[in-house]
């Protein structure tokens, strides 16, 4: 695996030893609000992000969706790597995901000019990321610091049921029992430590997502409003 990562870092023109690179994030957290949206697979991140976009003109970026788009992009050198990671429920080398997110953020800031998007300002819901501690560190150093983490929680039984239901129509290669079990494991082992770290910093709003979409949305909306009020 390290050889693969080196190859990718090289292809993306990333320096191998990042500590020698001046690390000013690409975006100023005073102008750009980043909210990380986390929770297990099937916890409701995507559904709730779609609702929150309507409330506050966020740009919703799902790391998984960006990776799937890159997987299918003609000429992408990461197609095979992404496909394997997604099916196995493992995490794609962070360089790929962080670059995709940064590129999408730049594009949104250049294009949008509605309220909250004037003079290089912007607000993002980054869904399903960071899933591992090293991704969080790289994103903070190179892209932007998050203002908060929305953390949706429910039981594995509920998540499994939702994912299997979604699998009937999603066409996703990872909405099957075998992949789901692997995703749960990656979530517990790699993503929970990220959430715990942000909890220590007082940045996490935990929301029980076992109830109806509307009820969850109401709670998420209040948490987001508080965070936006703080950063304005
Ligand atoms: N993934 C990844 N890095 C990320 C986000 C996603 O490697 O930062 C991969 C990983 O293999 C994951 C898959 O993409 O299992 C699907 O992610 P998605 O967020 O779409 O799943 P969800 O949590 O929404 O069910
Ligand atoms: Mg999702």
TrEMBL record:
Catalytic reaction(s) noted: UMP + ATP = UDP + ADP
Co-factor note (free text): Binds 1 Mg(2+) ion per monomer.
A Gene Ontology molecular function term of the record: phosphotransferase activity, phosphate group as acceptor
Cofactors: Mg(2+)
Annotated positions binding ATP: 42-47, 166, 211
Superkingdom, natural source: Eukaryota
CDD domains linked to this entry: ADK
Pfam families, alphabetized: ADK (PF00406)
InterPro entries xrefs: Adenylat/UMP-CMP_kin, Adenylat_kinase_CS, P-loop_NTPase, UMP_CMP_kinase
UniProt keywords, alphabetically: ATP-binding, Cytoplasm, Kinase, Nucleotide-binding, Nucleus, Pyrimidine biosynthesis, Transferase
Subcellular location: Cytoplasm; Nucleus
EC number of the protein: 2.7.4.14
Region described as LID: 165-175
Main location: cytoplasm
Top-rank EC class of the record's enzyme: transferase
Record PROSITE patterns: ADENYLATE_KINASE
NMPbind: annotated span: 62-92
One annotated GO biological process: pyrimidine nucleotide biosynthetic process
Binding site for a ribonucleoside 5'-phosphate: 68, 90-92, 128-131, 135, 172, 183
GO cellular component, one term: cytoplasm
PANTHER family per UniProt: NUCLEOTIDE KINASE
Subunit structure: Monomer.
Family, as annotated: Belongs to the adenylate kinase family. UMP-CMP kinase subfamily.
The record's note on its domains: Consists of three domains, a large central CORE domain and two small peripheral domains, NMPbind and LID, which undergo movements during catalysis. The LID domain closes over the site of phosphoryl transfer upon ATP binding. Assembling and dissambling the active center during each catalytic cycle provides an effective means to prevent ATP hydrolysis.
Function: Catalyzes the phosphorylation of pyrimidine nucleoside monophosphates at the expense of ATP. Plays an important role in de novo pyrimidine nucleotide biosynthesis. Has preference for UMP and dUMP as phosphate acceptors, but can also use CMP, dCMP and AMP.
Protein known as: Uridylate kinase
Phylogenetic lineage: Eukaryota, Fungi, Dikarya, Basidiomycota, Agaricomycotina
